[in-house]
Each structure stands twice: as C-alpha cells, then as structure tokens.
Amino acid sequence: MNHNCQVKSKGQTENKGIKPEETLKNANQMQQLVFFAVQPEAIMADNECTDMSAKPTSLPSHSYDRSAAWALLTEWTQSESLRKHALGVEACVVAYGEAEADHLGLTGEARQNLLTLYATTALLHDFDYERHPSLEEHPFVGVAELARLGWPEATRTAILGHATYSGVARQMHLDKVLFACDELSGFLTACTLVKPSRAIADVEAASVRKKLKDKAFARGVNRQDVIQGAEELGVDLDAHIAFCLAAMQRRATELGL
C-alpha cells in the first residue's frame, strides 16, 4: 500500500500538518526503538539466500513458517480487506520467488526454504498497520515485534525497505520484489472490483496499464512506486503487470476475486 498517504487511503483523518522532512525525522526516531540494528553486512549475511548469485545453506525454523505468519497476521489484523491485501501481495511475491528459485537452480528443501521466506515476508509486511497506521509507527512497531519473536532479519529488512521513508535501502531480491508488488497488488484488486463480474479473471494487463495512467482512478495508489518497483527489479513495466496479474489470477478463489 502507499505508506506515504496510507492514513488517508484507509478512510482516516489525514495529518496535513506533518511535513515530509518531519515524517522522516519521526520515523527515524521510531526506528531507533527497534532493538536490532540493520547493518549492511548483516543484511548481506542473513539475506544470502535471496542474493541472485547465492544459494540458501540452512533451513528456517518451523516456528517461522507460513502458518505462523498467518497466525500473527490474523492476531494483529481484523480487517478482511487488509488480510486480503496481504494474500494478494503474497501471491505476487511468491511467484517471483519461484522464478528466482528456478534461476538459482534450487530444488527440494533449499527451494522450499526460499519460498517460505518470500511467502512469510509478504504476509507480514503490513501486519502492524491496523494497530499502528501512522508513518511514525508503521512498519517500525511491527519490525520490533518480529525481532522480539525471532523472525529472520531478511524478513525484517525487506519490510523496512518497502516503506520508502524508513531509510533502509532495498538491496536484496526479496526487498525489491516486496516493494514492487505491494502497490501493484492493490491496484490490480481495484481494477478487479470495478469490473461488472468483480472477477480478476476478466482483468487484462492492457486495461491495467491504461488505468494506471488515469490518476483519477484508485488515487490512493502511488503510481511512481509501481514504476520504480519494476525498474528496481529490472523488468519491463508491462511484463511486471502481466506477471503479477497472472499470479493473482491463479489464487483468485483465495483472494475472493
């Protein structure tokens, strides 16, 4: 979702008195409360399995699997739309994870390890938003809780990175994928809900691109994030739209679309 205008997009009162530089200052102060420090060397080490040239060497604990991520999400998030958003982002992120696993030649447990990391990160990227929707708290409160519970640093780093105001760079493939899929997933849902059938199967990539140019449609979606996300992944925007659309269409029933 568009974190820079997220309060407004969720139907809450927008704080027009907060300037961008003040938001960043407050966000940085909240980030200091997160009791782990994100260091580039640590990111590289813990995110090794998401490096384009590296392969995972160990399996995650069973305590940090998809069922655990879903349980944490539903504990913190009661909104059905926010839960569906998490599932939509997961569909897109996991599809990219599968492509990455193929690229790296991963099989068996190593492949499942990577896919679990991608799935759980996607599910948890906004898990604290309902309780802490302000730019000063989200996603910092959630990341602090994930750190307390022992979730992988790769997950925490990607979640921080998907918020452009966090100051955390998107270095790894997972970081870039999460950022690229977040806004687009929500936009694809919006494109679906204006269809007479309200079925994502009836959405075409060409119509999505056309609506993306219409700034009056789904105004809460940050178009620049969608464009920048594709650029950071090094993929054509049309191809990115088609890829995520197909990923969500495959899970239409689960998404209620």
Q: In words, what does this structure look like?
A:
With 257 residues, the protein is an all-alpha fold. It has one domain. Helix content is 61%, strand content 0%. The protein contains 13 helices and no strands. The protein has helices at 6-9, 20-33, 40-46, 66-76, 80-104, 108-124, 140-149, 153-161, 173-193, 205-213, 223-233, 237-250, 252-255. α5 (80-104) runs antiparallel to α6 (108-124), α5 packs across α9 and α9 crosses α11 (223-233). The longest helix is centred in the middle third of the chain and has 25 residues, at 80-104.
Helix/strand layout:
Layout: H1 6-9, H2 20-33, H3 40-46, H4 66-76, H5 80-104, H6 108-124, H7 140-149, H8 153-161, H9 173-193, H10 205-213, H11 223-233, H12 237-250, H13 252-255
β-strand number = 0
Weakly predicted, low-confidence segments: 4-29, 31-60
Strand content: under 5%
Shape: globular
Order of helices and strands: HHHHHHHHHHHHH
Total helices: the number is 13
Tell me the number of structural domains. 1
Helix content: 55-70%
Q: Biggest β-sheet, characterized? A: none
Distance between the termini: 18 Å
Structure class? mainly alpha
Overall pLDDT: 84
Cα gyration radius (Å): 17 Å
